[in-house]
Amino acid sequence: MNVVVSIGGSVLAPALGANRVEAHAEVIRELADDGCSVGAVVGGGGVAREYITTARDIGANEIELDQLGIGVTRLNARLLIAALGEAVVPAPAKTYEEAGEAIRNGDVCVMGGVAPAQTTDAVSAALAEYTNADLLVYATSVPGVFSADPNEDPHAERFDRLTASELVDVIAGIEMTAGSSAPVDLLAAKIIQRSGMRTIVLDGTEPDRIASAVRYGDHEGTDVIPEGVGDEPTYWAENER
Ligand code: UTP
């Protein structure tokens, strides 16, 4: 199975801590040992936000802010790389081609951001599309896709299952509400829709949840099922619990 795991910065490093990073690396290593091809994409989290807020106060323009964000995502990617040890590309890949080649060669590859005006949500979807991944997993700090931002709206309900088009509609609705944020952004949702990629959005603060989702399809988040592709990856049926 070829999987891309997107690990939000607030999941990997809400505060810097070796144990948490090592626990995420352990899951990725185990999946690779199981025979999975793994691409990982790491976000910037609170540290990126702090840099961006500070630079905005200084008067930096939006592209400069994005470049700072990209820098932090790549720092976080390097942390994960350090914890992964062998069989991982030693620096964050800067292009999809580079990452794709490494993954084809059997190495684990870690990316951060690649270009301004997007987030690592879109990088993850693009990497999954480029490498023709069987599964894309978003390990976020919220337990799935909700009808509204659960931090803003107490009536927000979690979806167990969405089609890719429904995902686009839900995310577009959330992003139009000032102050709300969605677990996956609209560009990522559009890439998921056009590529027809099976996607899971889950609470990844416990790294073992990522492993269960990849190995067995077991999770308590949201399944995004592409239109016309109802079949589960055969890999899940082959794995015994
Ligand atoms: P994140 O992917 O962590 O963004 O990248 P985010 O969605 O704001 O973070 P979470 O999910 O809430 O934790 C951090 C920042 O880096 C820049 C953007 O400014 C983004 O907000 N970035 C990242 C890019 O400009 N391009 C990229 O490819 C990736």
Question: What does it look like?
Answer:
There is one protein chain. With 241 residues, the protein is of the alpha/beta class. The chain has a single domain (2-225), classed as 3-Layer(aba) Sandwich (Carbamate kinase). It has 10 helices and 7 strands. It has helices at 9-12, 18-33, 45-58, 62-84, 96-104, 120-130, 164-175, 186-195, 207-216, 234-238; strands spanning 2-7, 37-42, 109-111, 135-140, 161-163, 199-203, 222-225. Strands 3-2-1-4-6-7-5 form a 7-stranded mixed β-sheet, with helices on both faces. Helix 3 (45-58) packs antiparallel against helix 4 and helix 6 (120-130) packs parallel to helix 8. The two termini are 17 Å apart. The relative contact order is 0.15. The structure holds uridine 5'-triphosphate. Residues 8-10, 43-45, 48, 65-66, 69-70, 73, 113-116, 118-120, 123 line the site of uridine 5'-triphosphate.
